[in-house]
């Protein structure tokens, strides 16, 4: 255990050794925020137990870097942890193919060890983004009882345009993944997301462009195959019996030319597909469309970020008590949010 090289003071990082693959040693990195003076008590007044830990996960070609969000959660009394998966961020070693994975189930090794180190008697809430949200949902599906709840930030639960598009892609992508393995299957992505978020391009946020490149790392064929396989398995699985929060933008804007609307839209995923897949996850799902949010809702302009954090805080307050079943925030999921997403999709 040592000082985290990304966050510095107040955070530790410990390596999780995962053996070797054909590229050499494989590791993951578990980050922990240390409690500090001024944090709220871990056990709220009148409660009979501590708040659950929160384990934060990242998306594809990404790493956990939002210290302000982690500090906010810690200040509320939560014991905050973060996990950089193998071949991502802090865990990417020289000579490795960034983000390469043959099946999302392989991440079970580092998630299992992270939960062991957090404490198996303290099932955490998983707060995960994009591909990490899919990985978290699959973990919860395969390992009931190990997590208390899921908070998913624009999770990649389904392909653009929904299940029909995924079914068309499964066969060709599987064949290409078997042949190409870690070689790229897609051209590097658009730089528009970085243009809307990173300080160097006029955005509000700072992150390491080597660990999270503006166009993303080259997308390995086997990784896309793993995502499609994971989406297929999740869609076929039974309902999750834990509280789930899903947040996403109110609109998608994907195109070859940059527009100012992209600053307040998801420029990566189809928000309508996210919402439709989210509502099928289980009986206790709250889906919230955050107006003006980006793909990572916490990396949005200040007004949308504040709304996203307020939604997360309100949901956490309800699911962190003794009861595992959440009460919907403000009633059933709002149909207006779904309609807004559909309208925006039609305007792309």
UniProtKB/TrEMBL annotation:
GO molecular function annotation: hydrolase activity
Pfam families named in the record: Hydrolase_4 (PF12146)
PANTHER family: HYDROLASE ALPHA/BETA FOLD FAMILY, PEROXISOMAL MEMBRANE PROTEIN LPX1
Region Disordered, residue ranges: 326-348
Domain Serine aminopeptidase S33, first and last residues per copy: 66-298
Protein name, UniProt field: Alpha/beta hydrolase
Signal peptide bounds: none
UniProt keyword terms in alphabetical order: Hydrolase
């Amino acid at each position: 255990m040592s000082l985290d090289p990304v966050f510095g003071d107040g955070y530790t990082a410990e390596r999780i050794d995962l053996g070797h693959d054909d590229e050499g040693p494989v590791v993951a990195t578990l980050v922990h925020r240390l409690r500090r003076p001024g944090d709220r008590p871990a056990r709220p007044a009148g409660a009979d137990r501590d708040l659950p830990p929160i384990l934060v996960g990242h998306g594809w070609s990404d790493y956990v870097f939002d210290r302000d969000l982690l500090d906010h959660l810690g200040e509320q009394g939560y014991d905050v942890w973060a996990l950089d998966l193998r071949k991502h961020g802090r865990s990417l070693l020289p000579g490795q193919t960034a983000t390469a994975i043959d099946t999302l189930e392989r991440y079970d090794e580092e998630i299992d060890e992270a939960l062991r180190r957090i404490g198996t008697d303290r099932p955490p809430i998983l707060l995960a983004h994009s591909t990490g949200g899919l990985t978290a949902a699959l973990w919860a599906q395969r390992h009931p009882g190990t997590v208390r709840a899921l908070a998913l930030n624009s999770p990649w639960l389904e392909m653009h345009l929904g299940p029909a598009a995924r079914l068309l892609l499964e066969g060709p992508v599987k064949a290409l993944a078997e042949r190409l393995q870690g070689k790229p299957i897609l051209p590097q992505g658009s730089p528009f997301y970085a243009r809307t978020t990173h300080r160097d391009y006029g955005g509000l946020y700072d992150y390491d462009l080597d660990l999270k490149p503006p166009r993303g790392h080259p997308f390995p064929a086997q990784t896309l195959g793993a995502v499609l396989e994971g989406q297929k398995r999740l869609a076929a699985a039974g309902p999750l019996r834990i509280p789930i929060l899903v947040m996403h933008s109110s609109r998608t804007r994907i195109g070859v030319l940059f527009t100012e609307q992209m600053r307040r839209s998801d420029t990566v995923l189809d928000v309508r597909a996210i919402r439709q897949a989210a509502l099928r996850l289980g009986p206790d799902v709250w889906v919230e469309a955050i107006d003006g949010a980006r793909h990572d809702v916490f990396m949005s302009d200040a007004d949308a970020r504040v709304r996203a954090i307020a939604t997360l805080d309100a949901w956490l307050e309800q699911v962190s008590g003794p009861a595992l079943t959440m009460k919907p925030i403000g009633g059933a999921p709002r149909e207006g949010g779904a309609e807004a997403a559909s309208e925006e999709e039609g305007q792309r």
